[in-house]
Design a protein that fits this description.
globular, single chain
């Protein structure tokens, strides 16, 4: 019922129901249970929709802890949970903490899923973006280029994720043009059909 109310954008009504479900699951199933972890995510998402990102953070941290306990550190679902927490931290301006979480997710995804898995590519892109925001343009560029190569091969040139990475690279080029002492801008373009 809470999820249905949330889908209908009845957020004030959904909150108490999702809180009750979470409390009941924690009490009966424990904090290290997949259903409990799902309830943590649902309540965290609701809080974020309501603009309460700081209140959502401990829920996402508890979800990561639960997923690690149930599935292990390298399970793809656990790594997605780590990535989701990193996204929230980045949105809250906690870029250094987000960077650490993205590194953790990326390292696990590379080892478990490989370099060209869409989750791995998403983590490369997200880590690149948080590095860009912190002014670490060279590291960001290397990640964006790796992500772009994989996205072109796996998702195709016109996929929204590929286009997003191209936009990130374009932003890097713009930043380099406006910062004195930086390496001159490299132009990033889509390959022409005859290059394929």
């Amino acid at each position: 019922l809470g999820a249905l109310l949330q889908e209908q954008n009845k957020l004030e009504e959904a909150g108490p129901i999702l809180e009750q479900v979470l409390a009941a699951r924690q009490r009966t199933l424990g904090k290290h249970d997949l259903d409990t972890c799902e309830s943590l995510l649902m309540l965290a998402n609701l809080l974020m929709q309501q603009g309460h990102k700081k209140k959502a953070e401990p829920l996402l941290r508890a979800r990561v802890d639960g997923m690690v306990a149930v599935l292990g550190e390298r399970d793809p679902l656990t790594l997605r949970s780590v990535h989701a927490l990193a996204n929230l931290l980045a949105e809250c301006g906690q870029h250094k903490h987000a960077e650490l979480m993205y590194h953790e997710a990326l390292q696990g995804q590379r080892a478990t899923l490989g370099e060209r898995d869409p989750d791995t590519l998403a983590s490369m892109n997200s880590l690149g973006e948080v590095l860009r925001v912190q002014g670490q343009l060279g590291q960001a560029e290397a990640l964006f280029l790796s992500a772009l190569e994989g996205e072109r091969a796996v998702l195709g040139e016109l996929h929204p994720e590929t286009q997003r990475t191209l936009a990130h690279l374009g932003e890097l080029g713009r930043l380099r043009q406006t910062r004195p002492g930086n390496i001159p801008c490299l132009l990033y373009t889509s390959p022409s059909p005859r290059d394929s």
